[in-house]
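During the no-cost extension, the postdoctoral fellow (Dr. R.K.) reprocessed legacy sequence entries with the updated structure-token encoder. One reprocessed record is reproduced below for audit purposes.
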Amino acid sequence: MCGGISSEGLDSIESWFQNTNMLKRIEKDVLEYQNRVQETARTLQQKERLEEKLEELNAETGK
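Re-encoded structure tokens follow.
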């Protein structure tokens, strides 16, 4: 198949989801990734707020 999944590849993928230990590990990895993405977003928002506050303070002091 051109650019598709062969029947062997599909069987392999299906076998992953029949293996409960592997499925639990994949779920854990996905949850950890989602948590990292959320933490990164929170950190970036905090950084932006701090930069805005710094700009305000600099403007007040005439810098």
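The first helix runs from residue 7 to 18. Helices lie at 7-18, 20-61. The remaining legacy entries will be reprocessed before the final report is submitted.
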